[in-house]
Amino acid sequence: xxxxxxxxxxxxxxxxxxxxxxxxxxxxxxxxxxxxxxxxxxxxxxxxxxxxxxxxxxxxxxxxxxxxxxxxxxxxxxxxxxxxxxxxxxxxxxxxxxxxxxxxxxxxxxxxxxxxxxxxxxxxxxxxxxxxxxxxxxxxxxxxxxxxxxxxxxxxxxxxxxxxxxxxxxxxxxxxxxxxxxxxxxxxxxxxxxxxxxxxxxxxxxxxxxxxxxxxxxxxxxxxxxxxxxxxxxxxxxxxxxxxxxxxxxxxxxxxxxxxxxxxxxxxxxxxxxxxxxxxxxxxxxxxxxxxxxxxxxxxxxxxxxxxxxxxxxxxxxxxxxxxxxxxxxxxxxxxxxxxxxxxxxxxxxxxxxxxxxxxxxxxxxxxxxxxxxxxxxxxxxxxxxxxxxxxxxxxxxxxxxxxxxxxxxxxxxxxxxxxxxxx
Length: 424
Ligand SMILES: [Zn+2]
Prior knowledge:
Layout: H1 3-15, H2 34-49, E1 54-56, E2 62-66, E3 74-75, H3 77-80, H4 86-92, E4 99-105, H5 118-133, E5 142-147, H6 160-166, H7 171-176, H8 185-189, H9 198-201, E6 204-212, H10 217-221, E7 225-231, E8 234-242, E9 246-247, H11 259-277, E10 280-289, E11 295-296, E12 299-307, H12 311-332, E13 335-344, E14 347-348, H13 351-361, E15 365-368, H14 373-377, E16 383-388, H15 404-422
Parallel strand pairs: 4-5, 4-6, 6-16, 7-15
Antiparallel strand pairs: 1-2, 1-3, 2-5, 7-14, 7-16, 8-12, 8-13, 9-11, 10-12
Helix pairs in contact: 1-5, 1-15, 5-15, 11-12
The chain binds zinc ion.
Binding site for Zn(2+) 2: 116, 151, 396
Region (Disordered): 63-103
GO molecular function, one term: hydrolase activity, acting on carbon-nitrogen (but not peptide) bonds, in linear amidines
């Protein structure tokens, strides 16, 4: 085992037990709950250990600075004690120009995998170590970030931290988002979120998020690391189907108005229409009323998650599923309403930056169907993503994985990228 692989394993083992469910082996690391708070403490300790002052942006996002921390932000003095003296600055060398931001998120979906999020943060600290060990002298600060509530698993809005920082969500709306227990985001954070911080954003010249791949493209490409080209446009649509609740034993088949039939057909249609277009459609959530074994349902609600490479394809896909569902509803005597709940536009990562990094790393370039903080930040500063191979291709599940060798290759790639962007 190489020295770097050993240090990766050591850091990884330090967080692996936090928030892991003993039964599923998956993670329950919801934003600002005990496990995620422990990981945030781990972040501060790692930053402290490296002499990197930590600042918070008032939205729950953490930033560890190698190089000048921002003045006027709430640098965490308790944790930064002893790390902001002149010797730190002397050792780090001069800093000028915008900082290079890297990092990811700690939070997980319910019973999520170990790598989605934390891999980007662990790799970022190790990449800083690599640069320092190589004697690199950044001319721009290198900043490791941990964004809050990326998955939206607790408060319902994905990338909440990066949306707040960039002003892409209304502060009052964000503050009032509530989790399943009725706790608001502002209550969990301990204060009203601060919202957009253009001054802080303006200090960043680029953002590079390293992330475990959430598909099998790198397995097929036989490469450990890739550079992202784009995030597919995607969205969520709520399909509500109303019929007539009735007795399962006494209602003749011909007399039924069963919304479950319309729902079942809609799910099959979504799958078929997505396949026809090379797109993705999923119905992973359903609510049935009254949800009784011996009752014909009165109402079935299903949520369609749809994604495609181009906005037109996505639009056509959702239209087609809706048309088929409506046609089937007429046959079943049920009523359909479709409500868009959220849509995210195509994110094309900075072509110049992606091309530069792909050439630097001799890595393949891939699009992805998954949303990320990088997708939010891409509208505000040059942004790129690195993907690390996932042998199962599975994500948002305990089966998500990455080998130590590939994670090490990811750290080396990220260190080269940071060297390229921060040291010249
Ligand atoms: Zn993620």
